[in-house]
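Here's what a typical entry looks like (HAD domain-containing protein):
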Amino acid sequence: MTGSQLPLLFLDVDGPLIPFGATRQQLPNGYPTYRSRHYRPRGDASPLITRINPAHGPRLMALPCELVWATTWMHDANDCLAPWLGLPELPVVDWAEPSPKDEQNGLHWKTVDLFRWAAGRPYAWLDDDITDADHAWVEAHQPGHALLHRVDPRHGLTDEDFTVLDHWLRQHQG
């Protein structure tokens, strides 16, 4: 199966890959930190990069999809995060200016751009800011061919998230 027949998986970074926002009561010892076999952060890298579990890289690569960065990190995701996770360079969504009309309707500023980027291909989107308005808009424009999966930013990607993704992506292979 070629890459163009696989569903897309749009990856946000802050929240899904870099967990944040838990209280001291929820995580009394703070967030776990990791070391990567593939990459050592440079001095100018985000100090939060060590919160990213490098084991997510092989798990993401094993999913039946084409991975795409959908993050404000933009191309820095390939410079800093891909090596940390052991991922190849991935395509990056370049963002258009959000429409004030979309913002008034409660849409996330990424929603329409991801729909356009997918160009009719099935896609899954991992983000911590997905709302009911985003679900309704995508369902009206691409029914049944998109999975908008909200990740709890306090925990980042979990085994349950990977299970949901794997199941949905296998159902939507070309």
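Strands lie at 8-11, 66-69, 123-127, 146-150.

More examples are in the samples folder.
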